[in-house]
Amino acid sequence: MTHTRFISRCASSAPSFPDTPPWLSSLLSARGIRTEEEAARFMNPSLTDLHDPFLLPGMAETVNLLREAIVSGKTILVYGDYDADGICAASILMEVLHEEGASLAYRIPSRHTEGYGLNADAVREIAGKAQLLITVDCGISNVAEVDLAKELGLTVIITDHHQPPEVLPKADVVMDPLLGNYPFPYLCGAGVALKICQALQGMAGVEKRLDLAALATVADIVPLQDENRIIVREGLKRMETTSRPGLKALLENAGVQPPVTADHLAFRLGPRLNAAGRLGDAKLGVHLLLTPDPAKAANIAGLLEEANRTRQNLEREMTSAALSQLSLDELANAHVIIVSGEDWNPGLIGLTAGRLCERFHLPVIALSVHGDTATGSCRSIPGVNIYKMLSACGDLLERFGGHEQAAGLNVKTDLIPQLRERLEKEISAAAPEECFLPSMEYDLMVPFRVWTPETLALLDRLEPFGCGNPPPLFLLQGAEVQSLRRVGKDSSHLKLTVLDADLTVVDGIAFSLGEVADEAPAVLDLLYRPVRNDFRGRVSIEAQVACINNSEL
Predict the structure, then answer these.
(1) Relative to the CA of 103, which of 52, 365, 497, 530 has its CA 20 to 30 Å away?
(2) pLDDT for 236 beyond 70
């Protein structure tokens, strides 16, 4: 088995909080909680803790321009993005503005023919039918396109959450939580749309749209802290009793039963909604979320279900083709992976990049080549800011944008070798070598006997888990193997029983780690999550194992 570095994310000393066991205080500390007041807010997220929307720079101007357009009967066009965040953001804003009496239109660009963000042809078309253009989840990098929109007489409001470039577009308003001093700068696009809703309609409007904002927040992998934690925690509750026919149909097709969790949003609902833009028309997603007709919702959800199955098959094929391009000898000294294919589906290259990034623990760019131009999607590892690395190679790129861990780009096909060479130099110079060693973070070493139904209930209060609030992982060191056996339809999983240091018998399951049984180690180090197992009325605590090292090596 591959040896993985286990790194503790908990400090050796942590503040203690009243009526809180030391292990829970350490978990809170590792998530940035320093005071008793912060601990109370984290454990009991409340809508009353959402920040004043007018603290977002440009919010007052945005509200004034929208209200003025509504009163004067101008048509407002909402321009979104083709991913789950953009679909939810457009749906939130459309719904709010419709309630406010606006004359509305919307546009979601095609991932396949238009690409991300504003484009000149779309701007010209919009200018012929609307007077105010407002973007959601895009636009912060569209300097030339905004200039064109202004020349054509459009009022332009940019709302985005991506990294602002050095030169901002000259829109009437540019609103991004990363600009100015907003208390929480890590909202997703739908989160920004929800703040516009809060400014226009107060908390009553927010509560009606928390389900959509929660779905987008989890799907877009922004930190589940501060406002995002509140949005997701409260949104999950409302999703269980949602009156939206589209969400009901999506939940049913995905086989999700209450209680709805953040994992359901990340791995079941998000991929189905994303399938609309990856393989076809993302407008289907907006239709699904906004339709009041259950029959129409069921039909659209069925189409997305079929698209998602197709996506899974194509993704497997593309990942296999990408793997065939790689040499293990070359990877041994590489700091970045670049793979490419003729006419690869642009909607799936990000998934392929993510698969390779996870497998090889290296930054990855997957490129879809169309003639003399390639469209790329990047995924990175902790310690390598891929947006900064692309910025350092900006002279080679047609366009780029994104975050520290994920980004997109366009590059001329003949410049791909030069881009690979430059990125290799930039990344190797900027990132320490330990960034590239396989590693997993865990929280604490806790005796397994600590886990009871009561302590697991305390652990559950840290949910929802996701980016910025990872599910707690615990280290079990020097566990003596009692039994190991392969299980599952294809024997790919591992059932194990071990004895920990204080002679507690620990039963566990390790998904996709069946090969460990073949190696038959005698002593193991495990990273695990304690989980409740209810079998015929008997409750026991088991270990859901995330990673295994052979202690003897």
Answers:
(1) 52
(2) yes
Other beta carbons less than 10 A from residue 191's beta carbon:
26
Q: Which of 521, 455, 94 is nearest to 291 (CA)?
A: 94
Segment 456-478 shows an average pLDDT of: 94
What is the number of other CB atoms lying within 10 angstroms of the CB of residue 141? 24
* E strand or H helix that includes residue 103: strand 103-107
d(CA 81, CA 283): 10
Name residue, tokens 């992976």: 337
- Residue 16 CA from chain centroid, whole number: 31
> What whole-number distance in Å separates Cα of residue 392 and Cα of residue 85?
28
H helix or E strand, kind and range, residue 25: helix 22-30
Judged against a pLDDT cut of 90, whether residue 174 lies above it is answered with yes
For residues 272 and 257, give the distance between their C-alpha atoms in angstroms, rounded to a whole number: 16
Q: Which domains does the chain have, with CATH numbers?
A: 53-241 (3.90.1640.30), 325-436 (3.10.310.30), 440-550 (2.40.50.460)
CA distances (Å), origin 419, targets 214, 216, 391, 414, 422: 37, 32, 12, 10, 5
Burial 372-408 (b: 16+ CB within 10 A, else e): eebbbbbbbbeebbbbebbbebeebbeebbbbebbbb
